[in-house]
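Quarterly update, task 2.4: fe (ii) ion-bound model.
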Amino acid sequence: MNEKEYNERLNSLLRFSEQIVKIEDLDALLDQLLLEARRYTNSEAGSIYLVEHGKLRFAYVQNEKQTHLGSGKNRFLYNDITIPIDESSISGYAASRHEMLSIDDVYNIPDEAPYKFNTKFDEQTGYRTRNTLAVPLTTSNGALVGILQLINKGKDKNYCEEDQLYLRHFGLIASGAIDRARITRSVFTRMLQMAELRDPKETGAHVNRVGTYSIEIYQAWAEKRGVDEDEMRAFKGSFRIAAMLHDVGKVAISDKILKKPAKLTDDEFKVMQHHTTYGAGLFDQTSSLLDEMSRDVVLYHHEKWNGTGYPNGLKGDEIPLTARIVSMADVYDALISSRVYKSAWSEEDVDNFIREQSGTHFDPELVEIFFSIQDVIRAIRVKYQEAS
Ligand SMILES: [Fe+2]
Ligand SMILES: [Fe+2]
């Protein structure tokens, strides 16, 4: 590698490390990390395993040869696989030794090697793995965070010294970012658990669905508007958490109102409306994109497109996009799900209602987008069902 190439690569690594500190959601971060490592090494596929309870737990996968499966390929994201940290597998070997492991032909591993290639994924997907590089993700103080496994370097090439050198630096940046994203996630998970303790109507399944519908609606909106891919990923990273937090302000509402089994009186409803402003107060010191988004969502998720919502009666585009999306996702989910105090509406009734409210309660453009991704919306409903 000449000096110019070396500098270019160093620059791209620096740009990358600046970019990933903005991503606060763990899944979005893993997505971006894998994409960057694959781009650099020209790898067709790859996965990330994270260390959990002394094992490697499968956390993320990408495979550009599976686009023919359409959105169906996303089901592999939800595989629940754990691998022991020992020398019996390729990832386990790299993890237990804290060493990179490069294999040129996974179907011809010498018998004396302690590790075997697990053919299950290839069998499941019809994909053919050829070569692989397993990279331990280790923080600067030596703690193993996970394994990045790259698969099938392009044009019949094998992983080389240069790839390994780059990935050593990459691994350090990645593991720090993963560590941070895990802390962020656990802080927000606890906030959500607190809200759920206070208001059992806001279940974990409901907030997960609203968070996931919201980022899917956003993505369809962003694709339609031609938003740059990296910007879209960064936005989604914070937006899922922000959307999940929409009703976090209910922690400040008294049990008498929150848990009242009957319809609220006008006065009680006025108090209830304060969950928006109380909640927004939690994010007053807006220091990050996530805080800013959370504040917008929490404060404005009951505003209506025609200006008749609360707390400020904002109208149309004055309502932040994030809040307009969450508003629709939240109402949709409340209607389509059964809750202790009400049974679920039929799909047809809900669809009619959303359509009717286009231009009054909801942003008409978003309503249209919502109906264009119905298969995804349904898949989300199936994935995050209420625990019974
Ligand atoms: Fe609310
Ligand atoms: Fe909600």
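Highlight for this quarter: The pocket of fe (ii) ion (ligand 1) is lined by residues 246-247, 275, 301-302 (CB under 6 Å).
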